[in-house]
Amino acid sequence: MKLLACLLILTGSAGIFSAEAADPYPDQIKPLLRERCYACHGALKQKSGLRLDTVERILDGTTTEELLARISTTDLDERMPPEGEPVTPEQIAAVKKWIAAGTPKIAGEVGDDDPDAHWAFQKIERPLVPKSSFENPIDAFLEAKRVAKNLETQPEAERGILLRRVYIDLTGLPPTLEQLADDRPYEQIVDELLASPQHGERWARHWMDVWRYSDWYGLGAQLRNSQKHLWHWRDWIVESLNEDKGYDQMIHEMMAGDELAPTDPDTLRATGFLARNYFLFNRTTWLDDTIEHTGKAFLGLTLNCAKCHDHKYDPITHEDYYRFRAIFEPHQIRLDPVPGETNFEKNGLPRAFDDHIGAVTFLHKKGDPKNPDEAIKITPGVPVLFSKFESKPEPIDLPPFAWAPGSRESVQKDWLAAAEKKIPVAEKELAAARKKLAEAPPEPEPGSAPAKTDPFSLTDDFSKLNPKIWEVVGDGWKFEDGHAKQTKSTRDTEFLKTKQPIPRNFEARCRYTLTGGATYKSVTFRFDLGDDLKFTNYVYTSGHQAGKVQAAYSRDGNASYPAEGRKTRKFEVGETVEIRFAVRDRLVNVWINDEFSISYE
Question: At 578, which helix (H) or strand (E)?
């Protein structure tokens, strides 16, 4: 039997129904159903196949006995609506009266329109232009509306005001006195402003807001959000507007420029729209932003409302959201070299590319990425309501340098030129070293006693504080139960410092147990430490999220966490870890539990 399920909450008074009403349905029962039931049994959704927006549909989907029983029961597993306050006795009495009267139908009653029949979801058709004295079709449509509303147009503004308006509207800049005195035809001035570089700059700012342009940000030199050198995308927006590029073409290039024109750097700049959404720490957050703002910018829809459940107002299902996500699942973001520059910190082209063609998308139950529904096969596609517009995907062939940009001839030439520039410097350094060697004192005569040097060595089991070895900074360390324990989660004010200077080249080994900590759960070993702590090199492990082992450094108090000095590894609370790291000049190698992890210079 089909069941009545009503979800929304009505906040009315207990006396909303009148026992004396001849037919309580129009003024009392239908408003109740609309407020409490349509969310699950209306035009957008029909749980259990039941729809309640007309008397005819109510009687087709359930019986009056079932309807009355479900709103009257005190059993929470059976009661409808299942959430919110129960239906009041007065409301139940009105339903009984309506049933006793034979549930009369309302002549000509029409239910709510299906949401997918909304005009915004239909194919665009060019309407006939109304007859008008205006040459511009836009003016003709506006005039027709004014006539229909008995409105009259204002007279044309005087020339000075008109010029000021058009300058500010098209370029964002007020006209100069010379421009205000320009007596050329108005249309000629408009064409000149439309062709000026300032027009693209002025209107690009509007579209950059819609498309969420933002320069990169992170910690030190570490990129965490958006992309470095994203100004390439900004320039593409400005140039596209000044070139009068079609809006449809702009969308194509932003969403698929890497496939439409893989050999054209100018077009590849457009994929900065996708690069903007990059987020270092969480791929789901990254794709959620991509889906949300693609839907808002190009479809005018809040697709993000369907991440956890079916959309409450638009005909977009929970599964639609993940079908749309599957379109973006394979893509990644990178910096491509630009001609004449090999240093990505100075310049590079941020762009999208397909990294994992076979990437699989799972539906996240209630939007939780930790709870994927592997039983549902998600295929890439637009929401079902747009399926009538959807074209069939076709495979394309891309040149090798689309996924291996270093294979470009221009890139190889730049790298070769950069290497050749280093040769004279290296030759000069080699000559200086040879000269220094030649001027060095001769080796000791055979048989003479070699100079004695005591190798540096430091060993401690931390069973108790050894004041000859360690200086305790702050009060965040205690020696008890045969162990050194950190009691305050900070590295800059509470730490152990060796009293002996550490040599430039050394090897260290330490066994520790991670017992907790604040957010990052880090264990840090610093060396080459300046007196003010603003200059230091260090190696640390982190138990935060996916975990990592990281080689990092600080200069003038600014920390840098280079990606090439990082390796992901899970560190669990309670785990005993042995870290070993060896420093040779500028090179540091790190092992975790005798397994090699990173090498960074």
Answer: strand 576-584
